[in-house]
Amino acid sequence: MAENDVDVAIIGGGPGGYVAAIRAAQLGFSVACIEKRGSLGGTCLNVGCIPSKALLHSSHKFEEAQHGLAQHGIKVSGAALDLPAMLKRKDKVVADLTKGIEFLFKKNKVAYLKGTGRLGTAGRVEMAMAGGGAETVKAKHIVIATGSDSTPLAGLAVDEKLIVSSTGALTLASVPGHLVVIGAGYIGLELGSVWRRLGAKVTVIEVLDRILPGMDGEVAKQMQRLLERQGLAFRLGQKVTGASAGSGGVALSIEPSKGGAAEKIDADIVLLAIGRRPYLEGLGLEGQGVALDERGRVKTDEHFRTNVPGLHAIGDCIAGPMLAHKAEEEGVALAERLAGQAGHVNYATVPGIVYTWPEAASVGKTEEELKAAGIDYATGKFPMSANARARCNADSDGFVKILADARTDRVLGAHIVAPDAGTLIHECVMAMEFAASAEDMARAFHAHPTLNEAVKEAALAVAGRAIHA
């Protein structure tokens, strides 16, 4: 059995793992990254963030060609869907980016080992190689970066044909007549939007009485109204109790979450999107005595160290939001701390983005969280309908809301529903990273006409002095 001897061995080549590998190599460590998928980038790049955004963009263009260009004086007739071409483009985007990570590994001299890793004894990772055979990696530091997997639901057997996870929803061979989405979170709304734009009837079932759990309540209400206007139907406060799949589709049993009469819903395809859970299968954590928390995540301290000396963990398999950019920052911080530097992750400024259209984006505290904590705050809100650039673009749904400490004016949170909200939110992220006040944001130049002027106006509105509303 061959044995590789390195400074840092990383199990998992997703956003956390591959970024940690590159940063560690930049800092002078010898690094091996072990990935069993056969391609780098993890769930995010292969079957998550990237392919879904490719389909969101393509489906948005298709809908715009059908319904959005006439108001601009552009007449289009005969616009037709070529689904195989759309899916092929999505696959090419994924392949190109995956190859890009492989290039970065070669550039930074990271050893890319294709195989399934398992914790061994005395600082070793035992691997079953993808091409057959076995190898061992001995390392001073071992990093678990194995990501997450779709959360299952009792009574629903995912076959990726009729009952699909987000993975299967990215590769449907035809547009379903009726797609039922279980879960009104980021993934469900994004993929539901894709297939609704392409012609499917879409019904979203959510066990809670609101969509987008965890986001600001006003954002959730606005997004529901806009998505309903686009054609999505919502069944809130409903739980799925069973499913029967046959040649004609899937018959779902649902009933009110708080009790009541059950009913049946027929679907051609069911998408299960109720969240994600840490993926730790086959790692041998029990044999090494690795401590887990109450939710089955690897327990770490503030330096990403587990209770086992030399063993670290980052990303979706530890506490915190399951977001690619959170995993990336943890990967960088861990590598820098291993090198004796002060790696930094500010969890108070992790942004969350829903890539529907309009987009929804959030950073920091919601109004609900501030009220629960008894924090006195001021609110500044500005409608996108009063933003000149949004009007020029005929794309003026939504608002920008900034929450600031009532005494110090420090920005505590920002919540946006708008075209390109995922871009706009980063001005707020940067402001919060440097502990800016709403006054600081309001007095900074914002070129005219831009969508970002809505952020400035919302900051002005915190002090009751918005100019254009």
List the keywords.
single chain, about 475 residues, alpha/beta, FAD/NAD(P)-binding domain, Enolase-like, domain 1, 5-stranded mixed β-barrel, 5-stranded parallel sheet
Describe the structure.
It is a single chain. This protein has about 475 residues and is of the alpha/beta class. It has three domains: about 1-150 and about 280-345, FAD/NAD(P)-binding domain (3-Layer(bba) Sandwich), CATH 3.50.50.60; about 165-275, 3-Layer(bba) Sandwich (FAD/NAD(P)-binding domain); about 350-460, FAD/NAD-linked reductase, C-terminal dimerisation domain (Enolase-like, domain 1). The protein has 14 helices and 21 strands. It has helices at about 15-25, 40-45, 50-70, 85-105, 165-170, 185-195, 215-230, 285-290, 325-340, 365-375, 390, 420-435, 440-445, 455-460; strands spanning about 1-10, 30-35, 110-120, 125-130, 135-145, 150, 165, 180, 200-205, 235, 240-245, 250-255, 265, 270, 275-280, 310-315, 350-355, 360-365, 375-385, 400-405, 410-420. The strands form five sheets. The chain has a five-stranded mixed β-barrel with strand order 1-2-3-4-5. It has a five-stranded parallel beta sheet with strand order 7-14-8-9-10. Helix 1 (about 15-25) packs parallel to helix 9 (about 325-340). The chain is globular and about 65 Å long. It starts with a strand and ends in a 7-residue tail after the last helix.
